[in-house]
Amino acid sequence: MTLVVGLGNIGEQYEQTRHNVGFMLIDLLLKDLETTRLSNVKFKGELFKSSSTLFLKPSTYMNLSGESVKAVSEYYKCDRIIVIHDDIDLNLGTLRFKIGGSSGGHNGLKSIDSLCGNTYERIRIGVGKGQDVISHVLGRFTQGEKESLAKVLEHSKKALLELLDSNIKEIASKYSLKS
């Protein structure tokens, strides 16, 4: 079973913020997939299943995402985890893929790393870096940025759907974007 996790923060105040691109990509995918919603309070998030793939949006807030990932991956005995997250070290419009590595200061990844290890696959969506990192990632996209965001999310969706039946090295060479 494959678990695809989109990172973000719950609540209206965080909708459409840079830190929520993981949620945005999951939402975009769910529009086109036939899914079943799975409920269990232990999962600490919204969980959907399509074929042999689970899609998770943790409701723990970013800093505790690992709690939700661990609960779902252990319950379903997932053999593959793919995490979608924002990356301030990449410009908006940039898309990268990798396996493992450091959290790069990303608190959602730190939480997952501490509870699940760090050998999962990552889809890194660039959001750029502002003067004040916290204000930047918790800020909404400007009107001018929304066009770039829509393009990278659509591109990411195609890449992720193909990644589910492929390996990350193939997808990285085919779908990585540089802005």
Describe this structure in words.
- With 179 residues, this protein is α/β, with parallel strands linked by helices.
- The protein has one domain: Peptidyl-tRNA hydrolase (Rossmann fold).
- The chain has 6 helices and 7 strands.
- The chain has helices spanning 21-32, 65-75, 107-116, 133-137, 143-163, 168-175, and strands at residues 2-6, 36-38, 45-50, 53-58, 80-87, 95-99, 121-126.
- Strands 2-3-4-1-5-7-6 form a 7-stranded mixed beta sheet, with helices on both faces.
- A hairpin with a 6-residue loop joins strand 2 (36-38) and strand 3 (45-50).
- Helix 1 (21-32) packs across helix 5 (143-163), helix 2 (65-75) packs parallel to helix 3 and helix 5 packs antiparallel against helix 6.
- The model has no long low-confidence stretch (mean pLDDT 95).
Global morphology? globular
> How is the biggest beta sheet arranged?
7 strands, mixed
Look at the structure and give the CATH class. Answer: Alpha Beta
CATH-level-4 superfamily name = Peptidyl-tRNA hydrolase
Low-confidence stretches: none
- The main sheet orders its strands as 2-3-4-1-5-7-6
The CA-CA distance between the termini, in Å, is: 33 Å
* Structural class by helix and strand composition: alpha/beta
Indicate the CATH topology.
Answer: Rossmann fold
Oligomer: single chain
Indicate the percent of residues in helices: 25-40%
Residues in β-strands, percent: 15-25%
Gross CATH architecture: 3-Layer(aba) Sandwich
Number of helices: 6
Average pLDDT figure: 95
Order of helices and strands: EHEEEHEEHEHHH
Q: How many domains?
A: 1
- Rg, rounded, reads 15 Å
Can you count the beta strands?
Answer: 7
